[in-house]
Amino acid sequence: MATMTTLLPGEDVPSSQFPKSKKGTLTLGPGLRHVPPSTILATTAGSLQVDHKKSALWLEFENGRYQPAVGDLVIAQVHHTGSDHFFCSLTPHTPHALLGQLAFEGASKKTRPNLKSGDIVYGRITKASKWEDTELECINPSGKADGMGQLKEGMLFHVSHAFARRLMMGTDKSGHSKGAVVILEEMGEKIRFEVAVGRNGKVWINSSSVKETVMIGRLLTTADEEHWDVEQQKKAVKKALQDA
Amino acid sequence: MPREADPSTNEQAFLLSALRENIRLDGRALDAYRPISLSFGEDYGTADVRIGKTRVRATISADVVTPFVDRKFDGVFTISTELSPMASPAFEVGRQDQTEILLSRILEKTVRRSGALDTESLCIVAGQKCFHIRADIHVMDHDGNLVDASCLALIAALLHFRRPDVEIKGEEVTVFSVREREPVKLAMQHQPFCVTTSCYEEGTILLHDATLLEEQCREGDVLISMNKFGEICQIAKYGGAPMDGLSILTCTNTVLERVKIFDQLVKDRIAEDEKRRDVGGLIAELSAENDR
């Protein structure tokens, strides 16, 4: 990324920024809107990201509510149970997402999971549309849970959805974190803990002691709020481990 | 939507198990407050209080009205609270919910009924003209502990406010604008502050300055208002787990410590603000008020 273009809502994307590859159709991601014939408008304030290979354009922004998208891994909270679905909330005060009672590993009509109101699950979004209910599942197409399912014990921490996305970016070939968040890696060298990151801005952490869970959670939330860079994160992790 | 979203069972269970080990999620001590910031607006009588993410703004205004028939020698003092959806999606415009009723009631008891503001000094002509002091509390962001933040904002705003100066010549009353005469401070008799104590585990764990999550998980709460001399203005306990007399007594002791800190904070900030406004030391010269 040579220069970063920042757009305000209503601004046109300059045509010089369009992806260079000519083949294939242009894909628009979050925060952008196509106005025929050839204008692309920003619908929110954010920095413009371009993927030349995939011929994709999207805006990266920090604030606002999480918008479900197919394939996203999320942490949902069961609100109530219906006849064959669990009604889950992804974000507070928004319509519920549906989680099929049979969409769990090894679930059948007789052995369906017994989730109560207030339980949390890790799942993947299978349907996200403007007009229909969002749908979730806790099972792979191959029928395996693959880490999804109910999250027992542990603690849920709330971060911005941009930070959650950065946490989920993974590492590149040389082992550097793509999202520039190294807290979990640094902590993982010293402490054993389980973690699940939901794209809807929730991070679930479970470890053997309350103190460690709180420590990791606080580091993540403050790193998000105060926009720590990698160096600051490393320093903070070191300090937290010393104090513990 | 009239309800705050409930926290998950995991969060509730974790919070309680952490409290049993004397750990709070934000790393504070049990009786510690989040960082408090108090700032004043350009105009007299606006105070902005932030306790962590909770933010409350109090605005005071004055106008001249006819006093109540049965209280000829008293001015009028009203407090209005407003919880807008800006603070939290759980609040609705035009519909009072439990939080709002509780907030306005506690403020009324703490500040108005304890006689913090000397209403007699607001009288201009007995039975005919008096000042009406109106306090508006706006909650801008809600992350728990609204009552303490609102009370702090209200007292700070009242101390900061100046009403227009008046002159009475026989039957004629002149109200001077700010540009004609330096406005006058309100006569405050004492400065009460409210401190909320939340209790968990049947009253064995006591917390100050609970966040929204901690408030949602608590078993009960005690709201105690007092001034820095330890004079209690009100104690409110609306339901929740029972508490014995002794723990209420220990509560009042810790509350007193906290109230002293609040009082000092307000005093310091007011002094800072006065210094900032008093360019060239002219304010004392401009004032037409006599020392009583």
From TrEMBL, chain A:
It is found in: Cytoplasm; Nucleus, Nucleolus. GO terms for cellular component: cytoplasmic exosome (RNase complex); nuclear exosome (RNase complex); nucleolus. The keyword RNA-binding applies. One of its GO terms (biological process) is TRAMP-dependent tRNA surveillance pathway. Residues 26-65 form the Exosome complex exonuclease Rrp40 N-terminal domain. The keyword Nucleus applies. SUPFAM superfamilies: Eukaryotic type KH-domain (KH-domain type I), Nucleic acid-binding proteins. GO terms for molecular function: RNA binding. Keywords: Cytoplasm, Exosome, Nucleus, RNA-binding, rRNA processing. Residues 1-25 are annotated as: Disordered. Residues 154-210 form the K Homology domain. Belongs to the RRP40 family. This is Ribosomal RNA-processing protein 40. It comes from Acrodontium crateriforme.
TrEMBL record, chain B:
The keyword Transcription does not apply. Belongs to the RNase PH family. It is found in: Cytoplasm; Nucleus, Nucleolus. Its main location: cytoplasm. GO terms for biological process: exonucleolytic trimming to generate mature 3'-end of 5.8S rRNA from tricistronic rRNA transcript (SSU-rRNA, 5.8S rRNA, LSU-rRNA); nuclear mRNA surveillance; nuclear polyadenylation-dependent rRNA catabolic process; rRNA catabolic process; TRAMP-dependent tRNA surveillance pathway; U1 snRNA 3'-end processing; U4 snRNA 3'-end processing; U5 snRNA 3'-end processing. Keywords: Cytoplasm, Exosome, Nucleus, RNA-binding, rRNA processing. The keyword Ribosomal protein does not apply. Residues 33-164, 192-251 form the Exoribonuclease phosphorolytic domain. The lineage of its organism: Eukaryota, Fungi, Dikarya, Ascomycota, Pezizomycotina. This is Exosome complex component RRP45. Gene3D superfamilies: GHMP Kinase, N-terminal domain. PANTHER family: EXOSOME COMPLEX COMPONENT RRP45, EXOSOME COMPLEX EXONUCLEASE RIBOSOMAL RNA PROCESSING PROTEIN. GO terms for molecular function: mRNA 3'-UTR AU-rich region binding. One of its GO terms (cellular component) is nucleolus. It comes from the Eukaryota.
